[in-house]
Amino acid sequence: MIFWDGRGTNEKPCLLIRLLRGGIIYSTFLLTVVGRARMFSFGSALSRNIKREIGIDRSLVTLILIGRCCMLSRQQFGGDWTTEKLDRLRKYLAAYTPILSKQKSLKCAYIDAFAGTGYRESKDTSDKLDLLLTELAGIEPQRFRHGSAHIALECKPPFDKYIFIEKDEGKLVELKNNLLREFPQREKQIIFIQGDANTVIQDLCEKDWRLHRAVLFLDPFGMQVVWPTIEAVARTEAIDLWILFPLGVAVNRMLTRDGQIDEKWKRKLDDIFGDGDWYNNFYAVNTQDRLFGEATEMHKTADFSAIQDYYIARLKTVFPHVADKSLQLYNSKNIPLYTLFFAAGNPKGGKTAVKIA
Fold first, then answer.
1. What is the pTM (predicted TM-score) of this model?
2. pLDDT, greater one: 149 or 74
3. Averaged over 50-66, what is the pLDDT?
4. Among residues 5, 48, 170, 204, which is most buried (max CB within 10 A)?
5. Is the peptide bond preceding residue 220 cis, with omega within 30 degrees of 0?
6. Where residue 145 falls among pLDDT bands split at 50, 70, 90?
7. CA distance 307 to 219
8. 274: region left, alpha or beta (phi > 0 left; psi from -120 to 50 alpha)
9. Where are the strands (E) in the chain, listed by range?
10. pLDDT for residue 33
11. Which residues make Cβ contacts (< 8 Å) with residue 235, sequence separation at least 6?
């Protein structure tokens, strides 16, 4: 036996076979990162080499590859994050619309600012960080987005208006067809707007909100929401905000250990936090004795909790009421990818809204 040691039914793979299995496991990891088409091409080449070198049937290797892929797909996330978040949103909206319906002078709306059906397409290579972990991080937020729109449209009593904003024309058309097919009774209440979410929201916030209230759902995949949009929402004193913050999937990855951050990334972090003070909050100077004297270098002190707390503090600078407790989306390694924050805009009713959220 050249490739196997042991005898009878208790045969154990030797080192070569173990390495081979490691290669197969690694190849399935590439499937989630590079893409299914490329991976299966790689898998086919690998299986041909295995057949030629050691005589293992190619179909068996293919089955192993597919099996490993299915296992990864099932194990992408820890816990039922989507159900938990949707239950929280359902509970909030179930209380929100009945309360607002009693105030006959007020009109209320549900606004979804990134309403399209896809996260993974991007023509801007400068935003490549936004696409990190798309296979691992995109599925649950997409389910959350889909579910949140349905929960809002199913609310009783209903909202007076539903506003869905999407930059991509094709995605907006698809969304419109899907929602009107599923909720034809809401056709006159639904408004579809094509445009950049930041621009559209800031324009909406400039209107007179004294007789209007709204729930705004911001769930960008990456770091598209800029701080002036958050400020504009808060100034209305009429909008309650749910925002999905890219804690681990983007922000933490930009915060390098040594503090040497690309200027483009710094600008993106400035945009999302609203100023540059985050740097002093997330980094500290470390002084070390060297052969020719002291040397100073920056090192990262912020962990996920510190970043999250800092963003809550930033929200509190513009909103009268912000929920201190947020909910996280974790991957299978228990690393937080996103955080769901809530802030209430109305000074009088916001305290109650935070309790409900």
1. 0.72
2. 149
3. 38
4. 204
5. no
6. low
7. 18
8. left
9. 4-5, 12-13, 107-112, 161-166, 190-194, 212-218, 239-245, 283-290, 293-300, 321-322, 327-330, 336-344
10. 38
11. 205, 318
